[in-house]
Amino acid sequence: MLHRLKLAIEREPLPGAVHADLDPIELAAKLWPGTTFVTEVANSVANLALARANRVPRRIPEPGDPDGLGKIEQWETDGHPLHPCCRTRGGMTVADVLAYAPEHRPTIRLRRLRVPADRWHGTAQPVLYAHPWQAARLLRRYPWLTDAGPTRPMRPLMSLRTVAPVSGGPHIKTAVDVQMTSAVRTVSPAAVHNGPLLSAALTRITADLPIDILAETEAGAVITEHGPDRHLAHLVRRAPRLGPGEIAVPLGVFATHLLDTVDDPCQWLRDLTEVFFTPLTTVLRRGVALEAHGQNSLVVLRDRRPVRILYRDLGGVRVDRGLGLDLQGDLLTDDPAVLRTKVAAAALGTVATQLVDALSEHHGAEPDRLWAIIAAGLRAVPELLTGSLPVKATTAMRLAADPLDDIWTQQPNPMAVFA
Prior knowledge:
This protein is of the alpha+beta class and about 425 residues long. It is built from 13 helices and 20 strands. The protein has helices at about 1-10, 25-30, 35-55, 70-75, 95-100, 130-140, 190-205, 250-255, 265-285, 335-365, 365-375, 385, 395-400, and strands at about 110-115, 120, 125-130, 145-150, 155, 160-165, 170-175, 175-180, 185, 210-215, 215-225, 225-235, 245-250, 290, 295-300, 305-310, 320, 330-335, 390, 410.
């Protein structure tokens, strides 16, 4: 993790000089005295060590197991592949981390908080699904909320605050006032408004493609003195629908845990390109840039080969204003470059880079040959091949006034030679 922080500092456009002889935490303290960044790095180191110490051998669930995806997502110990503050759980104690963090394989029950009808905003019934870490705090602060009891058992997925019932059924994204990587993980009023509307539009846009949108079917937020409140909100998301013999795996988990299931890395990557990279360019040309990184993008495997993609989480997408969708927040844009950058950074700068590195290391595959396969699938959008490769400057973003504003750094594009 400390090596990752040092690489991030060297890669990104940060203030001050880089002192290669300093320990990364000492370097962070020198560059940003008086900030909470050093505390977050220390929290990240501690939680990463805890996760690695608590690893167990993985067991691939049987196809058809309704709890299979949740079990697979809890394999991942290291978290975000690039962020210098991976595994931060700001505000949680060690006991909280063990009880709620997915890398420790817990099952939990959300609390159902009944909300007065005149204090409810959204398409869901006026019952807030609250994370148990959050629920007690909400009940103390808002006595007009009524605890209506727990849900059935749920398994935290990779993002901690999104959970899946162990017996199957819709997934629920909750608001949790915990600092994880770049942000406190709440659910904005814009997300409550956009989720069902954008889900319907994306389902139409991808109807002829091997990308299945996990639609956000309903959402709601409690109205407080701040209006619809991001700290008291949830989204309900459709669960994956899998056929006989199929399993779903987030691409980030596949790259770190399932490479031994690949027989021919080049053929496997051709199959993935056909169902993932190429369809992303089609969606892009239709006016939507999916933030298809390794947590949001799940590959469906049948007989160990990619057959389609499941996409989830609409908060980070970008949409061409010309589509005429009534969206709130920062999703709409008039700039085609903004759309291309979103796709390139998530799918190429993160997923493709991680997969090429992993397949090269694990199988001895030639990186240039792997990049040529991906490049062949992107020719419909030549700008993705000829331009540099954008990567989120996660350290700079974390230190910015608004850590959710995208800041980009550029890397040489390994596909430029195939343009």
